[in-house]
Specification:
Blueprint lengths: L3 E9 L2 E7 L5 E4 L4 E5 L1 E6 L12 H10 L2 E6 L10 H11 L5 E4 L1 E2 L5 H6 L3 E4 L1 H7 L1 H14 L2 E5 L13 H18 L2 E5 L4 H6 L4 E5 L1 H5 L20 H12 L5 E2 L8 H5 L13 H10 L5 H16 L7 E10 L18 E11 L2 E4 L4 E3 L1
Parallel strand pairs: 1-3, 5-6, 6-7, 8-9, 9-10, 10-11, 11-12, 12-13
Antiparallel strand pairs: 1-2, 4-14, 14-15, 15-16, 16-17
Bound molecules: (4S)-2,6-dioxohexahydropyrimidine-4-carboxylic acid (DOR) and zinc ion.
Length: 376
């Protein structure tokens, strides 16, 4: 494979500098000042499906969508079919992920038998509201104790199912869950991360004992500007414009630790059906949606790198130092049909994004938009 090196304007340690990346002796590709080079993005929350759900997405398709979006490392979720609750399945999945062109990490599912954690030694465990329903809070507490001693992070989809009202999942379910988990964290000493939070109160309440992330959809979409019954359906639910704007203000104020997509592919047929499954696809454009907030002056470029590269890399325990993404500083309209994985529908259709991903470098190779691949 032809090898190249890259020369261009990079944002490094808080300022712009001209850099040359890659090995001596390789052909040099120059990027003008219409482009910037950033560290590769790290997304701690994706659903790459595969196995019994490969009609929705596959590991390879998910990785292609990630690269298209400038994402070089992911934390995949365990709600596959079957759900990953044993050391054996956890290892099998990690082995499959190891051959992808991106850096692959996996959050393990809650095991019925907590001894599975001793065998699997996961970096993190994902707790769903369904796990609380199935195993009860007592089991979650025991899991947290085990993780405190093994050193795993407990990642919560924090909604207490006791506060669901039929199909309704009100903000109260998140508030009550956060209260409960805060108490359990202080009792057990477990390291906690609250994923896809939707309320400014959660960001405030988490200070000092948990890290939090927000999704592009809870920052940008709400019950007024997103009304499609299928495409806009997601858990936790989109909130009112008032709550959504308050969350965005909290994000702009620096009270959120990370940005993560919760990229959750389903087929268009499923999303258009009478009972659509929850989940939104966005990883192909998540960086560009974040850069549009930079362009609007809501956050700084340093925030972009902190929120979607440095902090998430720390949570996943990945070294993203050898990776980078090249973005063209131009506006564009989001088009689902341009997405690279199996999921080509998105409620962000027609949204204005900024900073088109021109190339993404991970694991010794550079992938250009349009399909060329070189070694670095
Ligand atoms: O909207 C969601 N989709 N929320 C979840 O918690 C699961 C996810 C999925 O797997 O589709
Ligand atoms: Zn998810």
């Amino acid at each position: 494979m032809d090898c190249v090196r890259i020369e261009g304007r990079a944002y490094v340690a808080g300022r712009f500098a001209r850099v040359r990346l890659g090995r001596e002796g390789c052909r040099t590709l120059q990027f003008s000042n219409d482009y910037i080079i950033l560290p590769g993005m790290v997304d701690i929350h994706v659903h790459f499906r595969d196995w019994g759900l490969s009609h929705k997405e596959t590991l390879a398709g998910g990785a292609a969508a990630a690269l298209a979006g400038g994402v070089v490392a992911v934390g995949d979720m365990p709600n596959t079919r079957p759900h990953i609750r044993t050391a054996e399945l956890y290892r099998k999945r990690l082995e499959e992920g190891a051959s992808l062109p991106i850096i692959y990490r996996l959050h393990m599912g809650v095991p019925g038998d907590l001894a599975e954690l001793d065998a699997a030694r996961p970096g993190s465990v994902k707790v769903y509201p369904e796990d609380v329903e199935t195993y009860g809070w007592g089991h979650v507490e025991a899991l947290m104790r085990r993780c405190a001693s093994l050193g795993c992070v407990v990642v919560f989809h924090c909604e207490d199912p006791a506060y669901f009202k039929g199909a309704e999942r009100p903000p109260e379910a998140e508030l009550r869950c956060v209260e409960r988990v805060r108490l359990l964290a202080s009792l057990t000493g477990a390291k906690v991360h609250l994923t896809h939070i939707t309320l400014p109160q959660t960001a405030e309440a988490s200070r000092g004992w948990a890290s939090v992330d927000v999704t592009p959809h809870h920052l940008l979409l709400d019950t007024e500007n997103c009304r499609d019954p299928g495409l806009c359906l997601v858990n936790p639910r989109l909130r009112t414009p008032e709550i959504r704007k308050a969350l965005l203000a909290t994000f702009a104020a620096g009270l959120v630790d990370m940005y993560a997509t919760d990229h959750a592919p389903h087929t268009l047929e499923e999303k258009r059906s009478q009972s659509p499954p929850p989940g939104i696809c966005s990883i192909d454009v998540s960086l560009s949606l974040l850069l549009a907030l930079w362009k609007r002056g809501v956050i700084s470029l340093g925030d972009v790198v902190r929120l979607y590269s440095h902090r998430p890399a720390r949570l996943l325990g990945v070294e993203a130092g050898e990776t980078f993404v090249v973005v063209k500083l131009e506006e564009f309209k989001v088009r689902g049909e341009d997405f690279a994985g199996k999921c080509r529908h998105t409620p962000f259709e027609d949204f204005t994004a900024f900073g088109r991903v021109a190339a993404t470098a991970a694991r010794g190779r550079i992938y250009f938009r349009g399909g060329e691949v070189y070694s670095l």
